[in-house]
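Quick one:
INPUT:
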């Protein structure tokens, strides 16, 4: 009989979905009609029980009297796929998602889960492994729907390595127990898959993620992406420049587009808006694509989630001192390293500075295996230090041969000649044909004075004019003293293409318009209009969007609009409030009449029936 309290609910089996448990309840209760089962559990004969997302779990457990020994958290953690989505949501989105499962009547925003981005859709059929179902019936007496088999990306059973079979589900309110559907013929049509296949590997990774219930913040997730991409040379060291095309090519090389296409994740490398670019720019993508990206980066989800990977381009110190004249030569005693980025290649160079004054430069290694301190070469010596200089002076004064000095100090004869000139030493060898870069003091022409004299005469000149009028001075300063050049040159004038839009001003003006529109919202309307970003945009800008692809440039307006957007239930209640205020003489005898008057669906009205009874006495 409808409305009676039920003191029974089946105990969920291992990895059984909440949907499957409700299906078994329907069989065990001997209900003739599905609507009766739905009413007994949810108080809603028209309840749509989603295969993938459980809702109103807490209500069902309380109503059936099993919540004392079967908690809501246990059902969500072990019998839904909450953790498949959770790691790729912000903290707020994760809380909202969890609450919608515990006590909500549906998903408030399916876009938060990345389910409408790209072309990956929820499975519209129920999937199962015939071998698992056969074993369940033989050992327990009934089979159940495995929650993992319903996930996008899981196409095989990770226990038996056979392709999953699918069952068409006709009607959204259908309850289909697996035991009823099972047919002996299914066991004659098995397709086995290699354990080493990529399909098996991805299914295993998804299983690990859901069962181990790993959690990571959204910030940490993307930070790990950056660190691991740095190690592959696919992002600049400062994390500001992603090589999206190269990343896309590497992912395609790793999986192959044929495999990616089977998972609806094919990558068009030439497309700057493919899902790889969307992911690295922190926009919403389907969890399956995060999983594919993580496996590409780390090899496995376990390695990714359980290792806080930090990229050290030159390994972790200390590093070896290479000064040949000190006692600590070859000892790993350098703790000071300065990192610089090549403006052209965006690759790093490391300047290793020892306390003895010896500084040397190394290029960033191309491969992780080259991080060993003994394996990659020194690019150049930046500074020799006092002890090295004193040793050179002493050997020159002893009139030792150039070859002997070169061997002892471990630099080329050409370098010895240049350093001797730098120290002003009198040497016993010839410096003919030796080019020494001339500095300001040794150059007879005063480039600095000539530039200042020209700039004093034409203070409003531009860099282009300087390069055209005094090209030799311009080139010399640029090449020999870049720092002085930048400090004394006129500022680069804008071409008119960069920063021509004052985004702060635009943000402020748009915010004022939005606030003005919202202050008069629905004052002249007979029926309320739900406050959404699109409805605000239609009134303010006469179009369906406020920001387009420039949302990041409107931080104030974006934050304000997000705080003002109405949830569906809030809007339904506001509709009822308006009826109660302006149509209090109208008498309603049923919820259907209220639905027709407000032009809302009956399901929407039914969801706030208690509120309607209080306001309208229906």
């Amino acid at each position: 009989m409808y409305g009676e309290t039920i003191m029974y609910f089946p105990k969920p089996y291992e990895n059984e979905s909440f949907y499957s448990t409700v299906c078994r309840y329907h069989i065990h209760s001997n209900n003739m009609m599905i609507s009766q089962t739905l009413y007994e559990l949810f108080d809603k004969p028209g309840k749509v029980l989603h295969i993938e997302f459980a809702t109103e779990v807490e209500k069902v457990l309380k109503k059936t009297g099993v919540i004392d020994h079967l908690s809501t958290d246990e059902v969500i953690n072990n019998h839904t796929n909450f953790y498949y989505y959770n790691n790729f949501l912000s903290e707020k989105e994760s809380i909202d998602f969890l609450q919608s499962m515990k006590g909500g009547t549906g998903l408030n925003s399916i876009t938060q889960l990345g389910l409408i981005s790209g072309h990956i859709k929820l499975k519209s059929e129920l999937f199962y492994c015939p071998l698992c179902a056969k074993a369940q019936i033989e050992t327990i007496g009934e089979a159940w729907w495995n929650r993992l088999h319903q996930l996008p990306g899981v196409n095989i059973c990770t226990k038996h390595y056979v392709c999953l079979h699918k069952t068409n589900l006709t009607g959204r309110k259908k309850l289909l127990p697996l035991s009823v559907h099972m047919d002996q013929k299914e066991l004659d049509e098995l397709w086995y898959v290699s354990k080493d296949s990529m399909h098996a590997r991805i299914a295993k990774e998804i299983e690990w993620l859901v069962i181990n219930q790993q959690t990571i913040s959204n910030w940490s997730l993307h930070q790990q992406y950056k660190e691991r991409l740095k190690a592959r040379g696919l992002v600049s060291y400062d994390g500001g420049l992603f090589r999206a095309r190269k990343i896309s090519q590497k992912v395609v090389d790793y999986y192959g587009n044929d495999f990616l296409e089977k998972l609806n994740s094919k990558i068009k490398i030439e497309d700057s808006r493919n899902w790889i670019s969307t992911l690295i720019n922190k926009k919403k993508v389907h969890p399956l694509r995060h999983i594919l990206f993580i496996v590409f980066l780390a090899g496995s989800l376990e390695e990714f989630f359980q290792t806080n990977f930090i990229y050290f381009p030159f390994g972790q110190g200390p590093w070896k001192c290479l000064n040949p004249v000190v006692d600590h030569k070859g000892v790993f005693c350098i703790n000071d390293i300065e990192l610089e980025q090549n403006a052209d290649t965006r690759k790093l160079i490391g300047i290793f500075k020892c306390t003895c004054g010896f500084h040397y430069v190394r290029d960033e290694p191309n491969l992780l295996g080259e991080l060993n301190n003994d394996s990659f070469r020194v690019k150049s010596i930046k500074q020799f230090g006092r002890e090295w200089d004193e040793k050179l002076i002493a050997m020159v004064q002893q009139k030792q041969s150039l070859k002997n000095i070169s061997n002892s100090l471990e630099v080329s004869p050409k370098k010895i000649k240049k350093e001797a000139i730098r120290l002003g030493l009198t040497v016993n060898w010839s410096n003919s044909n030796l080019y020494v870069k001339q500095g300001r003091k040794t150059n007879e022409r005063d480039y600095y004075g000539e530039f200042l004299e020209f700039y004093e005469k034409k203070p409003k000149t531009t860099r282009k004019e300087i390069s055209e009028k005094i090209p030799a001075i311009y080139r010399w300063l640029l090449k020999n003293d870049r720092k002085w050049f930048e400090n004394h040159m006129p500022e680069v004038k804008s071409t008119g293409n960069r920063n021509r839009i004052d985004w702060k001003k635009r943000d402020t003006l748009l915010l004022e318009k939005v606030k003005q529109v919202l202050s008069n919202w629905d004052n002249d309307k007979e029926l309320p209009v739900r406050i959404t970003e699109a409805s605000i945009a239609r009134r303010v800008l006469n179009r369906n969007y406020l920001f387009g692809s420039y949302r990041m440039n409107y931080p104030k307006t974006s934050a304000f609009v997000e705080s003002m957007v109405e949830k569906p239930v809030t809007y339904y209640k506001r509709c009822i409030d308006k009826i109660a205020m302006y149509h209090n003489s109208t008498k309603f005898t049923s919820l259907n009449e209220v639905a027709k008057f407000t032009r809302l669906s009956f399901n929407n009205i039914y969801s706030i029936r208690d509120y309607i009874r209080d306001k309208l006495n229906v």
